[in-house]
Amino acid sequence: MASSLVFCSWIIFMVMALGTLSTQTEAARAFFVFGDSLVDNGNNNYLATTARADSPPYGIDFPPTHRPTGRFSNGYNIPDIICQQLGTDLLLPYLSPQLTGQKLLVGANFASAGIGILNDTGVQFVNIIRMFQQFEYFKQYQQRLAAQIGAEQAKRRVSEALVLITVGGNDFVNNYYLVPFSARSRQYNLPDYVKYLISEFEKLLQKLYDLGARRVLVTGTGPLGCVPAELAMRSTNGGCSADLQRAAALYNPQLVQMIRGLNSKIGSDIFIAANTMLMHNDFISNPQAYGFITSKIACCGQGPNNGLGLCTVASNLCPNRDQYAFWDPFHPSEKASKIVVQQILSGSNEMMYPMNLSTALALDSMTMT
Hints:
By secondary structure, the chain is an alpha/beta fold. Helices cover 43% and strands 7% of the residues. A 6-stranded mixed beta sheet has the order 2-1-3-4-5-8. Strands 6-7 form a two-stranded antiparallel sheet.
């Protein structure tokens, strides 16, 4: 009976803590985003690169303009939806000239479409912000923030921030499997390449910690072989690409294992692993259960599965984006992203290690003042 009361009290506290995110702690909490096109919200618009989402029909459902913003989505992407859950303003891209004054206090998005864990990933896109440069910009951001609110307050703001890092998929799609007999595939067999990626990713996460991040959400890769682009180009017997699915199946468990070790070394659960492969698998294997009519065909595209080339004004375009799990050949629709964020917030330990984001935010609200 006593333990039931304690459990109920904890649940009540969680609900109260989360209910006040937007009005108390989280209103003051900064949010930083690093990674690739899954989380880029327009940095590449400022760069001379083909990895851009700056023309219609991108942004067709983005309010209020319904115009392209640089997000690889029909509307909101994962960072936007997390911002909505936190009750904070949407982040600006770090390269945006509008990121000044009070807007600096909200945080910033450093992500850049096409990049990977490795610097040689996405070389075909030429001018993109690789991870080391994203971290350089983060340092630059902290200097700008310190000039505005003082070094001590800036340091505290960063340490109390929520950080999201989404990177890794391009290291397979736009590197190892980009072309037959790629340089990396000649250098490593797949299991060794995955180990190499994980070891390099660990260095990036340690660097993020060294730069002051203390609550970091790390997403794994989705089911890489099941996106419409791969179904169109390298489907195995009409199904998902076996090679890319094997890559994701090797990578994601090792990512969790690495994060467990890193947290143990630091002595605190700084890093939270989100198993986005499992999250996507749910609506890819049973799209109808989530209100989708298909998870195999992109809403916007051309060729088999609408999976070839870019999403452009000349592409096939579905009338109802909410019925499609994939917006373009590689990226989820806004509705699919909302499902992923819900899992990040409240998913089980199978989905989220060592805890889901709601639990982490509730714990943080107890220690922040």
